[in-house]
Amino acid sequence: MGAGAFTMTNDERVRYSRHLIMPEVGDEGQRRLKAARVLCIGAGGLGSPAALYLAAAGIGKIGIVDLDDVDLSNLQRQILHGTKDVGRKKLDSARDRLRDINPNIDVAPHECRLSAANAGDIIADYEIVIDGSDNFPTRYLSNDVCVFARKPNIYGAVFRFDGQSAVFAPHLGGPCYRCLFPDPPPPESVPNCAQAGVLGVLPGIIGMIQAIEAIKLILGKGEPLIGRLLHFDALKMKFREFNVRRDPQCPVCGDQPTITAPIDYEQFCRVATDVPAISVQELKRKLDARESIELIDVREPFENEIARIDNARLIPLGELPGRLNELDHESCLVVHCHTGMRSAQAVQLLRGSGFRNVFNLEGGIDRWSDEIDPTVQKY
Ligand SMILES: [Zn+2]
């Protein structure tokens, strides 16, 4: 149904008057917002501010996927819910709060976890997805299903004092989440908010950026966060932007995709990491002892800009086969990536090409930051 079919009452004209007066929104734009259907995955730290502002802005239908109950420890950041809601379903508390803000909108609860079995059906009812999930399985699934369905997936993630956001919509240009983060970390290695902590205000900022991007896409105004990864450091109070490109080799949005239907996380986490490896402690000891080691970073340039280990040489995995002649067969090579998956592939490739003294850095730069050098930026 086009936006033209949606009319506004006098009450709505008053409610949205600050929108209606802006030429970028106006009557047509407000009716577009009313016609829009946005799915929020999660009613937590990111989903809370996103859904609150989307409701206030008059998004006609807001779907929410969540299965959790409100816990007292959620209230430090999940501002959809109040103290009186502790113990209730987040979906119930979210619905009450959003309808209180704006009774003109439709709030659609989806009481489940997003899974390979249900993701396609749920996302089919919406035009835009806001990924407010706090775990990798859901994040990859939301990305993949949105790529299949050619719908924008608005990504947000938070960690302690840092957050990032991007709009993944390969059908409109730019990369998908998997182009940027091809190697999912093994399930047991991933800290969540409970283990790592997060400043309560931080998801507020990132979730609101996600809401703004959704509204811009609906209005067709401005420049969406496509092909750009926006990083926010609350301690330094700095926004940085990284240009990111679609990877033609991407298994989901690439030229020859190998993933063409939703898959559950464990299926693609089972990558061969069974290659000779060294721990971050061992590498630190060797470096401190000034042993001769060539450290190779097989991540993408934008990742190297965010965080790097001193003296590591950047050779993105895709370029490695063509740059073997730059490497010394006699040297001890230690290869690292973000979490150790891509570098394991690199070690396989190098060993297959006759390099014998090659090791994978277990856990990648992520673990280096956790266990050796906390000044190395996590992302
Ligand atoms: Zn991709």
Description of the structure:
The chain contains 15 helices and 13 strands. It is an alpha/beta fold and 379 residues long. Strands 3-2-1-4-5-6-7-8 form an 8-stranded mixed beta sheet, sandwiched between helices. Zinc ion binds next to α8.
Topology at a glance:
Blueprint: H1 10-15, H2 17-20, H3 26-35, E1 37-41, H4 47-57, E2 61-65, H5 90-101, E3 106-110, H6 119-124, E4 128-131, H7 136-149, E5 153-159, E6 162-168, H8 177-180, H9 193-196, H10 202-219, E7 228-233, E8 238-243, H11 265-269, E9 277-278, H12 280-288, E10 293-297, H13 301-306, E11 313-314, E12 332-336, H14 341-352, E13 358-361, H15 364-371
Helix pairs in contact: 4-5, 4-10
Bound molecules: zinc ion (ZN).
Zinc ion binds at residues 170, 175-176, 178-179, 246-247, 250, 252-253.
Residue-averaged pLDDT: 92
The total strand number stands at: 13
Described by strand count, sense and barrel closure, the largest sheet is: 8 strands, mixed
| Ligand inventory | zinc ion
What order do the SSEs take from the amino end to the carboxyl end, as H and E?
Answer: HHHEHEHEHEHEEHHHEEHEHEHEEHEH
**How far is the first residue's CA from the last residue's CA?**
40 Å
Per DSSP, what share of the residues sits in E-state strands of 2 or more residues?
Answer: 15-25%
Report the radius of gyration as a whole number of Å: 22 Å
Shape: elongated
